[in-house]
C-alpha cells in the first residue's frame, strides 16, 4: 500500500508468512516506533547495539532495513493531532514485525491507551515477558539467579475486554436490572459494572503459544495461574481449558503434576513437560520463596499484568524487563516501562528493557546468533559494573554512565 508519511526503505525486503512460518530475508524491513519521553534516548542507543550485533554475527551478510512508523506524540505532530494513525497499523499488518518505545497514555478522559489499542486492533493476543536475572543486577532476593520464567499473559480478554458501565449511567442501570431481576444476582445499587469474558478460544490460543514455546526451548513446566477458586467460570475455566489443550494437542510431550506423582514417583521423565496450576495469590508468594519451581507461566490478562511487574522487580525491575505482544505472526516488541517523562532527553535512563526486547525480536526472526551476541555483551557490561543511574544507586563500586555511553560499552564488548 502507499503511505503518506511513512517512508518504505528501498534497500529492504518484506518479512512474509508462508505455510505457517515466518519467511525472513537477509535484509528484512523491521518497523520501529520511537516512543515518547525517554523513547528517543533508549531507541537510539538500542538500535546502535542491535545493528552492531547483527554486523558482528553475520559480517554484512545480513542487515536490518529499519522503517520508522509513528504513534504517540511524534505521530500527533506529523499527522495533525492523530496519535495513532491508520497507516502505522497498516504498516504493521504489511511488514509483520516491529519494536516500540513507550507511549504516553493520559489518565482519564476519552483517550484510549495506545498500547491497548495496538494489542486489540492487531489481535496481538499473547503478551510475552521473559524474566531472568543477569549477574550483578541489583535484586531484593537473596537468590535472584533462581528466577528464570517466561510469562504468557492473555492480552485481549478478561476485564481488559473493555465491557464496562459507569455507575449511574442508563447502561449500568439496564445491566443491573437484568442481573438482579432475571438472573437473581445481588449487589449494591448503582454499582459501576465491569464484565470479565474469558473464552475457550482465547484461552487455548494463548496456552498453545506457551506450550509451543516450552517445547521449542526445552523448558520443564507450564503453570496455569488463575483465580479459579473464586471465579469458577472464567479463571477456573481458563485452567480447565488449559489442561484440556495440553492433553488433546500436546499429550505426547506433557504430563500433569498429578501424573508426575502417581505414575513417576515425583521424578520428571525425560522429554516430558509438566503441566500444573497455581492459584494467583499463592503464586505471588511462590515466585518470591521458591522461584526455581516455575518455568513457563500462562495466565489471564489481569493476573498477568500484576505478576509480570512483580516478578520483574525480583530481577532488577521494569528498567530491564523485556516484552513482546504477539498474535498469529504479527509481533510488536516493546519496552515494558513507561515514558518516564522527567528523564526525557537527558540521556540518562537504562535502555535494558528495550535492548532485551530487541534480543527477543532477533530470536523471533530466527537470528539467534545476533541475539546471543547482544545479550552476552549486555551481560558482560553489567557484570563489569558499567550501568545507568538506576542500577548505580543500588550497586557498590559501579561506574555510572549515560544511556549512549552504556550502548558504546555494550558494543565494545560484542
Ligand atoms: P514509568 O514511565 O515506567 O516510570 C516510572 C519510574 O520507573 C521512573 O520514574 C523511573 O524511576 C523508573 N523507570 C522507568 N523506565 C526506566 C528506565 N528505562 N530506566 C530507569 N528507570 C526507569 O511509569 P509512569 O511514570 O507511571 O508512566 C509514565 C507514562 O508512561 C504514562 O503516560 C503511562 O501511561 C505510560 N506508560 C506506557 C507504557 C508503554 O508504552 N508500554 C507502559 C507503562 C506506562 P525513578 O524515578 O525511581 O528513577
Brief descriptors of the model:
alpha/beta; single chain; binds NADP nicotinamide-adenine-dinucleotide phosphate; 414 residues; 41% helix
How is this structure best described in words?
It contains 14 helices and 17 strands. With 414 residues, it is α/β, with parallel strands linked by helices. The strands form four sheets. The chain has an eleven-stranded mixed β-sheet, with helices on both faces. Strands 1-2 form a two-stranded antiparallel sheet. Helix 11 packs antiparallel against helix 12 and helix 12 (368-383) crosses helix 14 (403-412). The protein starts with 15 loop residues before the first strand and ends with a helix. The chain binds NADP nicotinamide-adenine-dinucleotide phosphate. NADP nicotinamide-adenine-dinucleotide phosphate binds at residues 38, 42, 102-105, 115, 318-319, 334, 337-340, 349-350, 353, 390.
Please report the distance between the alpha carbons of the first and last residues: 38 Å
Question: Low-confidence parts, pLDDT < 50 over ≥5 residues?
Answer: none
Query: DSSP strand (E) fraction?
Result: 15-25%
* Class per helix and strand makeup: alpha/beta
Short description:
With 414 residues, the chain is α/β, with parallel strands linked by helices.
Secondary structure elements and their pairing?
Blueprint: E1 16-18, E2 21-23, E3 29-33, H1 39-58, E4 65-68, H2 73-78, H3 86-95, E5 97-100, H4 114-121, E6 126-132, E7 148-154, E8 164-165, H5 170-182, E9 193-194, H6 200-216, E10 221-226, H7 232-250, E11 254-256, H8 257-264, E12 273-279, H9 280-289, E13 296-299, H10 301-314, E14 322-326, E15 331-335, H11 352-364, H12 368-383, E16 386-387, H13 389-392, E17 399-400, H14 403-412
Helix pairs in contact: 1-11, 1-12, 1-14, 6-7, 9-10, 11-12, 12-14
